[in-house]
């Protein structure tokens, strides 16, 4: 159950960062803000002022009321004087609308177009900064958080500093902190949140960025956990919320209050504040915020071991069909229903939910593939259209050239009937010119065919490589989602009901345990995604947790690990740890294992120590496992020392430089 709890906490961090886009920079006094926009529209002092305020109104309604947002946007797009505004502005606000409607392909294109235009203009730098951030945020699913971090640090923050926009500079830093928090880098996240606070000192009047930064700090300290420091920033946020209780950030505020009480294991006030936040989110139609609140409430029920309420909450969410309209959300709900049914001991129902989750995973993968195919089809159609345009332009030039030549010949024939030699000479010149032109056209055509052929080969090669990588990931996912669930369910059923005598039951259970372990090992070897996305420390922690079982406790410790360790070194140390723990499980008969990794300047030290039966190094031949460890150490130019004696356990110490 402890593993399930920590998985739910990790998921809550992810879901909070995933919905960071909901942190709009709308003034806290929203009623006054909307009233001011409508006043500017009604006065209509100038077309530019009137149309720009329509765009602001469209942005305000985009997350909560698609109809009002579209009406305001159309008022600009259909206005005959819309050219008084920069096309970059129009692209940005249209992209905001499409983002909230879920059309990612169209939204990304519009943001990209906005950036291309706004970068060439001296004004509208604030919109350029927001365009870069939103564009990078939409790339997280495909390019990972690295692209978002790179955009914030290389584009948004420098542009904010150059334009001296303190509010956006603080906002970019707090969003950068939120991004690091989403991957578990809480100390780094805290550094950027503190930078945002320093910049906000230059803005004496508390505004939306102050509230967002306070709430992000509350989350960061609750995840550490450090409830004492979290309370400091929660109090600051409370002061602002009391002044503006109707702000769209109020639901997020109650979410943070509940997190604080959850950290202190004060479950009653946590549930009370979550209920307040849920009510506000429903009123303001904040579907994404509603999902955060419901999952936090679900986590509280799990911590209380109130599995009946936890199950009921997930079933109600599924029945409402508000949060589950998106396939990924439905999969999350179904997976959590499988978890809570397992905790309640209803293994049959848990198995049924796992089957549904597996089927939905296949459906989502198919949907994602179709989206990519549609995107490729659009690119192909664009290429075909461009080729058609080029061909028509070429034909036009040829026709114009032929027309000019025809007129020239007619004039020459009309004014020089008696000058046959001159006419013949001119005809010869014209023939030579036409032949060269035809040769140029032929050469151009051949070059075009060659480019098309090279492009086709490139696309085919790229598709083949992508298909190979996707197939590897699908195999690993299928092993984990399908075979893992089935084997686990069979094992639980046999353990609970038994088959025949006890020795036979234990033997089958042991065989299933080994099958499950082998399946997990194969899946992890195929796709160590945690190592790629979250780094060595998080990957080793997860590995130790996954390889622990009832009779084997694995303690993991990490000290001062750098984020700049080469990936090849990270992978080698990960595999060494994996092999060492596997050897402990197979041979050591140990109940406890300590895995410790530390870094001192550029020296890395990895130690795996067990308290098992040990072995005599002089009386044992090195097996494949120990040879694999030594080979991996050699690949990273490191050293390994294996210390063991009968009855005294085994210690493996690896050192390497980075």
From TrEMBL:
Name by which UniProt lists this protein: ATP-binding protein
Keyword Membrane listed: yes
Domain Histidine kinase: 474-658
One GO molecular-function entry: ATP binding
PANTHER family: NITRATE/NITRITE SENSOR PROTEIN NARX-RELATED
Annotated transmembrane regions: 410-431
Alphabetized Gene3D superfamilies for the sequence: 1.20.5.1930, Histidine kinase-like ATPase, C-terminal domain, Tetratricopeptide repeat domain
Entries under Pfam families matching the protein: HATPase_c (PF02518), HisKA_3 (PF07730)
Keyword tags: ATP-binding, Kinase, Membrane, Nucleotide-binding, Transferase, Transmembrane, Transmembrane helix, Two-component regulatory system
